[in-house]
C-alpha cells in the first residue's frame, strides 16, 4: 500500500482514535492484572496470600489431563459445530439470496434461534433431549428409531452440545453471509453471466472471492465465541457424565469461580488466548495466501 | 425450462424443511411458556398445553423480568450505538488506509479473544475503584470490549468488499474523505451495518457472566434475571420460557424494522455508475 | 475485638446522626421462593427492629461466586447473607462473617431445638456460632407405599428372595428391592401391563452432588473424609470402594440416562410414577403431595436411608447436601440488628416458613417436626406425620458435607471419579485412588497443616454431636 499521505494519515488517525481509546482504557488493566495473576499462586479459599511462582501455573497446565480433555471437547465444537454452521449457513444464504415473496419474513424467522438468550436455549434443549420425557426421543420412537441417550452417555453428550450449538448459531452465519452476498454489486453477476459462465463458475469465480473477507471474519468470530461455549454445557450436562463434555471455558470457570484458584485460572485463560491467536493467525494467513495466488 | 422449475421447487422445499427444523425448538419454547407444573416432564410429552392463559408471563415479568428487560435494553442499545459509530469509522480507516498495518487490526481483534474468566475479577476491581459497580456504564463499556472489535472487523470485511473506485469517483467530485465515507461507502454497506448492529445488540442482550458479577441490585440484566428462575429445588420452566419470549420481542421488532436493509433487493441502485 | 469496637462506634455515629431513620440492611440469597419470608415480614421487621430490608436475589447456581467476589473485594455490599453450609467454614475462616455468640447470649436462638446436624455442623465454626439455620436439607428414602403393600408383588418377592417385602433398611435389601421392581415395558407391575420401562431406583448422577448419594453408603460403612492424624484422604479406603461397588450395582436398576440426572430429573422420574424408590431432599415429599406435580399422591412412603446392620441395629447416616443458613457479614453496617432479623426468621417465624407450600424451605427444628398439622400441602395430617417422621429420622443421623475451604473442589473431583466408575471408564478402586491423589494435590495447594488444623477442629465438633 505504500506510505499514507500526510492528510490521509491524520484522517485515519482520528477515525481509529475512539476505538483505541476505549479498548485501551478498559482492557489494559484487566490484561496486565490477570497476566500478573497467571504468574502467581492465588488460591483464595484461605486468606488469599498471593505468591509469585513464575511459570508454575503454565507448567501445571501441561500435566493437567482434565484441561486437555476439555480442550479436545472445545475442539470438537469448533470442528463439527462451526464447520456445520458455516456450510449450512452458506447454503442457506445462497438460497435466500434471490428475490421471492415473503423472503424478509423467512429471513427473520431464521434469526429466531439466536434471539433467545443462551441460558434459555440450554433449558429448551434440556427438555428436548430428555431420555424418557423429551419430545425428540418420542418422535424418534414414533418413526421407529430407538431412543438415544442424549445427555447420559459420555459418547453422545458432547455431540448433543454441538447439535444445540449448531441450532443456536447457524443463523449468525446465514445473516452475515447473506449481508456479504447482498453487498456484491449486481453488475458483476450480470457481466459473468454475459460471458456465459455457469452458475457454479459464477459462484467459485466471482461470488466466493468477493465474499472471502466476510467469510473469514464470520468464521473467526464464531471460532472465538465457540471457544467460550459455557452456558449450554452448564445447563445441558454440567460437563458430564464425568468430564465427557467439559468445554475449556467450563473448566476454566470451575477453576476460577468455583475453586477460586485465580492464578491457575488466569494461566488457563492466557493459554487459550495463545491458542486462539495462533488459530486466527494461521487462518488469516492461509486465506491471504490464496488471495494473492 | 422444466429443469429449472424442478430446481426451484427443490430449493423451496429445502428452505422450508430447514426452517421447520430451526423453528421447532422455538415453538417448543412458546408452548412451554403456557405449560403448568406437571406438563414439563411427562410421558407422552405435552406438545399442546392444556390452557393458554398468560399467567406465567405475568408472573415472570413480576419476578424481575420487566426490570431485566429495561436494564438490558438500555445497556444493549447504548453499547451497540457506541460500537457501530466508532467501529465503522475505525473499520473504514483500516480498510482504506491500512493504518497501523495488519498487526494493529489484529490487536483490536485480539481484545475480543480474551477468555472472559480471566477478566471478570480484574474488571470487578477496576470498576470498584471507579465506584461504577452496579451501574449501566460499567456493563456498557465492558460489552464494548466485545462489540467494538466485532464491529470493526465485520465492517472492515464489508468495506473490503466494496470496490475503491466508487469512492475515488466521489473524491474526485470534490467530496472530502468524510464525505466519501458517509455518503458513498456507508450507504453501500448498509446491510452489513445493520447485521453488525443486530449482532452487537444480541451479544450484549444475551451476555451473562459479566452481568452477574458487575451488576448487583440497581442493574440486573435479563439474563441474570432468567438464571434466577432456575432455583436449587425449583425450576420455573414456564416462566423462563415466557420471559425469554418477551425478552426476544425487542430484537425481533428490531429485525423486522431493519429487514428492509438486511435483505434489500439484489439491485443496488447506487452501485451502478 | 477491634472490629467490634469499630462497629460499635459506627453504630453510635449512625444512631446519632440519623436517629429515627431506619437502618437499611441488604440481604443476599439465591433468587426465588426461599427469599419470600424476607418480603413477608418486611413490615414486621421494620416495626420491631427499625430495619429496612433490601433483598438481592442471585441465581442459585452462582450465589457462591457472587458472594465470594464481593467478599474478597471487601465491598461491604451485604449485611445478611444466605450461605450454603459448605461455604460457612471458608467464609468464617477468612474473617468475612460476624461471630454471633455475644448476640446469642442476649437473644436466645434456641439451638437446643435444632437437630444436631444443623446445630453443630452447619452453624458453628471453630467453636463459635456464625449462622442460624434457615433451610434443613437432608436426604431421605422415598418409596412407593402402594406397590410395597401390593399382595401380588409381596408374594412374588417372598418367593424370589425368601423374606418379606418391606422398606429396605440395609443396602443389600435396597439392591434386592431395586432389582425386583425393575421391569421392562410389557411386563406386569401390580397386575397391570406396563406401557413403558419401570425402574427400581435412580440417583443424582451429575457430578456436582453425586458424592452425596455415594456418601450415604460410604458414611454408613463408617467412612470418613480424611485420616485426622495424617490428613491422608480416606475416600479410597475399603469403605469407599465398597460403597462405590454397591453404587455400581444400584446403577443397573436405574434409567439409562441417570448420569445426567440432577434434582429435577430425579424428582420427575419418581413423581411421574416410573420409578420405585429414590433418595431425595425433603421438598420432594411435599411436591409429591401436590396433584398438579405428582401422579403418585398419597402413595409415597418416607423412611431413613438404608445402612448396615451392626449389633442387631441398623446403622445409617443421611447426607445433608445443600441446606441454607443465615449469616451476618463482618462488614455489616449494623451486625446486632442483622442478628435480630435472622433470629426472627430462624426462631420466631420459622415454623410458618417451612410448612407453607409457598417456599422451598424444609424443617430443621424439633418444634417443626412436632406440628404436622401446620403442613398445608398434605391432604391430611396422617400423610404429614408420615412425612415428618421419615425426615426427622434422617435429620437426627445427618452426616455433614465436609466443611473446609476447598470443599467445592474436593466434592467435584470426587464426583468425577464416581461417575467414571459408574460409566465403566475405570474400576472403583482406581477411580477413587485418582480422586484421592487429586485431594492430596488440593491439600498441598491450600496448605496441608492449615487444612489439618481446620479438619481436626471440625471433627471435634462432629464427635461432640455423637454422629462421627
Please give the structural blueprint:
The complex is a heterotrimer of chains A (293), B (273) and C (468).
Chain A: H1 6-38, E1 40-41, E2 51-52, H2 56-62, H3 65-96, H4 103-115, H5 118-128, H6 135-142, H7 157-182, H8 186-194, H9 199-227, H10 231-236, H11 248-258, H12 262-292
Antiparallel strand pairs in A: 1-2
Helix pairs in contact in A: 1-12, 2-12, 3-7, 3-9, 3-11, 4-7, 7-9, 8-9, 9-12, 11-12
Chain B: H1 2-32, H2 55-97, H3 101-113, H4 116-129, H5 136-161, H6 165-172, H7 177-188, H8 190-206, H9 209-214, H10 222-227, H11 237-262
Helix pairs in contact in B: 2-5, 2-8, 2-11, 3-5, 5-8, 6-7, 8-11
Chain C: H1 2-17, E1 23-30, H2 36-40, H3 42-49, E2 51-58, H4 63-73, E3 80-83, H5 85-93, H6 101-106, H7 116-121, E4 124-125, E5 128-129, E6 131-135, E7 140-144, H8 145-148, H9 151-161, H10 171-181, E8 188-189, E9 192-193, E10 199-202, H11 210-220, H12 238-251, H13 263-271, E11 275-280, H14 282-288, E12 300-303, E13 308-310, E14 313-315, E15 318-319, E16 324-328, H15 335-348, H16 350-355, H17 366-369, H18 381-396, E17 398-399, H19 407-422, H20 428-446, H21 448-464
Parallel strand pairs in C: 1-2, 1-3, 10-11, 15-17
Antiparallel strand pairs in C: 3-16, 4-5, 6-16, 7-11, 7-12, 8-9, 13-14
Helix pairs in contact in C: 11-12, 19-20
Describe this structure as you would to a colleague.
The complex is a heterotrimer of chains A (293), B (273) and C (468). Chain A has helices at residues 6-38, 56-62, 65-96, 103-115, 118-128, 135-142, 157-182, 186-194, 199-227, 231-236, 248-258, 262-292; strands at 40-41, 51-52. By secondary structure, chain A is mainly α. The longest helix of chain A is centred in the first third of the chain and has 33 residues, at 6-38. Chain A is flat, with a radius of gyration of 23 Å. Chain B has helices at residues 2-32, 55-97, 101-113, 116-129, 136-161, 165-172, 177-188, 190-206, 209-214, 222-227, 237-262. By secondary structure, chain C is an alpha/beta fold. In chain C, helix 19 (407-422) runs antiparallel to helix 20. Classes of the chains: A mainly alpha (293), B mainly alpha (273), C alpha/beta (468). Chains in contact: A-B, A-C, B-C. Chains A and B meet through helix 1, helix 3, helix 4, helix 5 and helix 7 of A and helix 1, helix 2, helix 3, helix 4 and helix 5 of B.
Amino acid at each position: 500500500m505504500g506510505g499514507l499521505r500526510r492528510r490521509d494519515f491524520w484522517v485515519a488517525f482520528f477515525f481509529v482514535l475512539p476505538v483505541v481509546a476505549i479498548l485501551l482504557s478498559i482492557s489494559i488493566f484487566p490484561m496486565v492484572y490477570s497476566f500478573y495473576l497467571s504468574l502467581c499462586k492465588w488460591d483464595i479459599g484461605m486468606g488469599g496470600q498471593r505468591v509469585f511462582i513464575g511459570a508454575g501455573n503454565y507448567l501445571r497446565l501441561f500435566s493437567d489431563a482434565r484441561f486437555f480433555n476439555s480442550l479436545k471437547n472445545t475442539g470438537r465444537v469448533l470442528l463439527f459445530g462451526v464447520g456445520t454452521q458455516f456450510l449450512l449457513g452458506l447454503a442457506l444464504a445462497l438460497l435466500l439470496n434471490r428475490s421471492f415473496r415473503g423472503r424478509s419474513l423467512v429471513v427473520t424467522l431464521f434469526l429466531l434461534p439466536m434471539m433467545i438468550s443462551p441460558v434459555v436455549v440450554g433449558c429448551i434443549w434440556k427438555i428436548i433431549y430428555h431420555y424418557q420425557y423429551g419430545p425428540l426421543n418420542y418422535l424418534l420412537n414414533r418413526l421407529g428409531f430407538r431412543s438415544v441417550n442424549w445427555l447420559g452417555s459420555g459418547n453422545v453428550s458432547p455431540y448433543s452440545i454441538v447439535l444445540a450449538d449448531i441450532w443456536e448459531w447457524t443463523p449468525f452465519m446465514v445473516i452475515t453471509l447473506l449481508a456479504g452476498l447482498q453487498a456484491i454489486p449486481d453488475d458483476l453477476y450480470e457481466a459473468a453471466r454475459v460471458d456465459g459462465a455457469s452458475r457454479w463458475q459464477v459462484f467459485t469465480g466471482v461470488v466466493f472471492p468477493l465474499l472471502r473477507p466476510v467469510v473469514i471474519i464470520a468464521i473467526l468470530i464464531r471460532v472465538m465465541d465457540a471457544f467460550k461455549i459455557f452456558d449450554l454445557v452448564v445447563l445441558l450436562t454440567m460437563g458430564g457424565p464425568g468430564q465427557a463434555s467439559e468445554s475449556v471455558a467450563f473448566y476454566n470457570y470451575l477453576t476460577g469461580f468455583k475453586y477460586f484458584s485465580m492464578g491457575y485460572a488466569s494461566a488457563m485463560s492466557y493459554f487459550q488466548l495463545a491458542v486462539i491467536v495462533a488459530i486466527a493467525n494461521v487462518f488469516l494467513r492461509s486465506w491471504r495466501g490464496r488471495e494473492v495466488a | 425450462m422444466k429443469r429449472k422449475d424442478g430446481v426451484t421447487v427443490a430449493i423451496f422445499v429445502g428452505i422450508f424443511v430447514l426452517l421447520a427444523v430451526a423453528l421447532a425448538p422455538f415453538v417448543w419454547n412458546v408452548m412451554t411458556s403456557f405449560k403448568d407444573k406437571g406438563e414439563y416432564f411427562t410421558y407422552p410429552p405435552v406438545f399442546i398445553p392444556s390452557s393458554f392463559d398468560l399467567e406465567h408471563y405475568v408472573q415472570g415479568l413480576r419476578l424481575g423480568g420487566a426490570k431485566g428487560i429495561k436494564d438490558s435494553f438500555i445497556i444493549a442499545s447504548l453499547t451497540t450505538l457506541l460500537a457501530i459509530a466508532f467501529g465503522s469509522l475505525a473499520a473504514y480507516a483500516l480498510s482504506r488506509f491500512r493504518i497501523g498495518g495488519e498487526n494493529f487490526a489484529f490487536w483490536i481483534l485480539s481484545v475480543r479473544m480474551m477468555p472472559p474468566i480471566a477478566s471478570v475479577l480484574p474488571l470487578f476491581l477496576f470498576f470498584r475503584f471507579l465506584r461504577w459497580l452496579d451501574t449501566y456504564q460499567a456493563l456498557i463499556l465492558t460489552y464494548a470490549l466485545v462489540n467494538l472489535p466485532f464491529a470493526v472487523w465485520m465492517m472492515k470485511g464489508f468495506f473490503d468488499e466494496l470496490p475503491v473506485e466508487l469512492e475515488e469517483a466521489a473524491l474526485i467530485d470534490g467530496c472530502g474523505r468524510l464525505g466519501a465515507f458517509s455518503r458513498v461507502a456507508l450507504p453501500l454497506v448498509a446491510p452489513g451495518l445493520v447485521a453488525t448492529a443486530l449482532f452487537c445488540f444480541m451479544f450484549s442482550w444475551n451476555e451473562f457472566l459479566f452481568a452477574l458479577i458487575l451488576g448487583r441490585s440497581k442493574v440486573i440484566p435479563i439474563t441474570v434475571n432468567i438464571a434466577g428462575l432456575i432455583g436449587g429445588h425449583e425450576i420455573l420452566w414456564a416462566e423462563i420460557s415466557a420471559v425469554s419470549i418477551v425478552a426476544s420481542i425487542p430484537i425481533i421488532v428490531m429485525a423486522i424494522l431493519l429487514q428492509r436493509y438486511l435483505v434489500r433487493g439484489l439491485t443496488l441502485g447506487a452501485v451502478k455508475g | 475485638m477491634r472490629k467490634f469496637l469499630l462497629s460499635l462506634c459506627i453504630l453510635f455515629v449512625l444512631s446519632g446522626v440519623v436517629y429515627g431513620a431506619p437502618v437499611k440492611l441488604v440481604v443476599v440469597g439465591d433468587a426465588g421462593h426461599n427469599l419470600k419470608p424476607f418480603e413477608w415480614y418486611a413490615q414486621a421487621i421494620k416495626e420491631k427492629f427499625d430495619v429496612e430490608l433490601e433483598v438481592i436475589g442471585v441465581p442459585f447456581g452462582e450465589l457462591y461466586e457472587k458472594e465470594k467476589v464481593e467478599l474478597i473485594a471487601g465491598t461491604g455490599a451485604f449485611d445478611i447473607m444466605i450461605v450454603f453450609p459448605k461455604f460457612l467454614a471458608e467464609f468464617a475462616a477468612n474473617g468475612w462473617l460476624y461471630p454471633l455468640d455475644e448476640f446469642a447470649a442476649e437473644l436466645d436462638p434456641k439451638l437446643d431445638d435444632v437437630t444436631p446436624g444443623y446445630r453443630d455442623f452447619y452453624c458453628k465454626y471453630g467453636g463459635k456460632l456464625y449462622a442460624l439455620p434457615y433451610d434443613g436439607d437432608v436426604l431421605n428414602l422415598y418409596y412407593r407405599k402402594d406397590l410395597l403393600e401390593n399382595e401380588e408383588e409381596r408374594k412374588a418377592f417372598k418367593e424370589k428372595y425368601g423374606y418379606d417385602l418391606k422398606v429396605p433398611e440395609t443396602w443389600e435389601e435396597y439392591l434386592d428391592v431395586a432389582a425386583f421392581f425393575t421391569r421392562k415395558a410389557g411386563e406386569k407391575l401390580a397386575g397391570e401391563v406396563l406401557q413403558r420401562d419401570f425402574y427400581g431406583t435412580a440417583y443424582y448422577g451429575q457430578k456436582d452432588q453425586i458424592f452425596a448419594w455415594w456418601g450415604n453408603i460410604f458414611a454408613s460403612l463408617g467412612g470418613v473424609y480424611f485420616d485426622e492424624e495424617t490428613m491422608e484422604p480416606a475416600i479410597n479406603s475399603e469403605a469407599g470402594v465398597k460403597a462405590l461397588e454397591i453404587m455400581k450395582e444400584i446403577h443397573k436398576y436405574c434409567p439409562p440416562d441417570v448420569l445426567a440426572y440432577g434434582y429435577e430429573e430425579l424428582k420427575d422420574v419418581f413423581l411421574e410414577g416410573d420409578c420405585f424408590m429414590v433418595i431425595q431432599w425433603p421438598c420432594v415429599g411435599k411436591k409429591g403431595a401436590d396433584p398438579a406435580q405428582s401422579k403418585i399422591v398419597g402413595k409415597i412412603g418416607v423412611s431413613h436411608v438404608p445402612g448396615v446392620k451392626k449389633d442387631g441395629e441398623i446403622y445409617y447416616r443421611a447426607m445433608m447436601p445443600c441446606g441454607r443458613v443465615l449469616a451476618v457479614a463482618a462488614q455489616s453496617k449494623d451486625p446486632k440488628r442483622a442478628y435480630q432479623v435472622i433470629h426472627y426468621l430462624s426462631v420466631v417465624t420459622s415454623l410458618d416458613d417451612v410448612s407453607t407450600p409457598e417456599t422451598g424451605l424444609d424443617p430443621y427444628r424439633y418444634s417443626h417436626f412436632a406440628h404436622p398439622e401446620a403442613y398445608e400441602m398434605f391432604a391430611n395430617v396422617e400423610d404429614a406425620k408420615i412425612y415428618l417422621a421419615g425426615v426427622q429420622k434422617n435429620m437426627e443421623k445427618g452426616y455433614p458435607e465436609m466443611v473446609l475451604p476447598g470443599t467445592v473442589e474436593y466434592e467435584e473431583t470426587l464426583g468425577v471419579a464416581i461417575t467414571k466408575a459408574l460409566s465403566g471408564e475405570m474400576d472403583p478402586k482406581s477411580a477413587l485412588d485418582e480422586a484421592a491423589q487429586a485431594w492430596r494435590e488440593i491439600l498441598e495447594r491450600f496448605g496441608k497443616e492449615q487444612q489439618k488444623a481446620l479438619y481436626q477442629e471440625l471433627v471435634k465438633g462432629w464427635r461432640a454431636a455423637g454422629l462421627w
